[in-house]
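Researcher: We're reviewing a set of sequences before deciding which ones to prioritize for further study. For each one, I'd like a predicted 3D structure that I can look through quickly. This is Galactarate dehydratase. If possible, include the structure in token form so it fits the rest of the review sheet.
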Amino acid sequence: MNQLVPRTIRMQASDNVAIVANDGGLPAGTILADGLVLVEGVPQGHKVALVDLLDNDPVIRYGVVIGYANGAIPRGSWISEKVLHMPAARSLDNLPIGTHAVTDFPPLEGFTFEGYRNADGSVGTRNLLAITSTVQCVSGVIEYAVKRIRDELLPRYPNVDDVVSLEHIYGCGVAIDAPGAEIPIRTIRNLSKNPNFGDDVMVVSLGCEKLPPTRLFPAGSIPIGSAQPSVVTLQDQQHVGFMSMIDNLMATAERHLQKLNARRRETCPASSLVVGVQCGGSDAFSGVTANPAVGYATDLIVRAGGTVMFSETTEVRDGIDQLTARAATPEIAQAMVREMQWYDDYLVRGGVDRSANTTPGNKKGGLSNIVEKAMGSIVKSGSTAITGVLSPGDKLAQKGLIYAATPASDFICGTLQMAAGMNVHIFTTGRGTPYGLAAVPVIKMATRSDLARRWHDLMDVDAGRIATGEASIEDVGWELFRLILDVASGRRTWAEQWKLHNSLALFNPAPVT
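Model: Here's the predicted structure for Galactarate dehydratase, in token form for your review sheet.
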């Protein structure tokens, strides 16, 4: 971007602030295109007052009041989080229900990818051996076995992409029958049935845990036509010494590898895509570049008959009225309200308020508070009707645009979307994060071109071109859609090439013991 030409971005005509687009920000005395003179330096992504504001005047961005002035603010001033106070959270009563006229797009036909068909009708984008555990006590043994499987067995089975451990810190030392305990249990169960694992479940148990394999996979939990789980229990009498455990795990893994190696990619319609979208390390450009482009791609996937999950209850709570207005039915709207009410109650129990969400990095990137952050987050959902709501840990049973309720934590959100059946993950970032998942390909989008240049071998898409005028939201949206099809067909993302992945993180509202 040409530093000699001051650039600001105003999202809507009703906004009384704009953000500075120039790399490095703009110094005091800079004259903007409309003649406005900056009375102080404003960092990149941060807001400048376009009008004189009096004490308690509303500050408007995205056409929404994101805060109120703490005292008089002259036009041309830098508006940071320090000079604002947040508005009250939107009441969950009397929300608009299905009142927003969503665009009735024509179907998008003819788009396909090469995927792995499963007996339950789902389609994998990778061909992986997954090893599930019932309790954290066995994690070290699995880790040792996985290394040997990769080194000694995997080279014999070239059609299998990798072996992954679905590690977690659950299964014992918890109140297994407490209210809320069903969430981590069903999450582990449904993680094991992700489409990328080919209807093949391998389980490692200790033998004395509160979550035995029979409870993790009760009768009827495995779809008809899918193989029943194979279980290795470390406390079984047959195991004499550590290496006998490893030998049993290796032999069991090889039987699974033989089955997986017979799988081949087939041409599948784009309607088989199950895409999870998420943002992390957000900044003020998230809602300007990357997230709107994701929203455009979301509309394309839904038009093609596919499924997109958007999430992060803690970050969309302040936009609940915009979401219920797009609900396909009153029942869907009420389900979203139920998830938001759970979050409100959770904050009360914890003795905190929603201002705890924004991070130092968010604020350094220009986001003053959770209201502003929410407005930039929800645009990932595009513009179609919301056709379903998924509670944490549940598995998808329908197509379309789905609100999958998760916390905003990158790792918990990714884990829950994976349990829901996600086969491709989209992750946008403004500050930068090397986030990845071992079991699902993650496409990472930079909100700024500066980040895309510096992290050129970590970011798959540079959405910052939207801010510079080099590309439109539609351009980047189509680019992302085509990249999703390529990645679903086997193209490796940067995170996959570097084998970067974060540990899975369960959402457990139940008490520990």
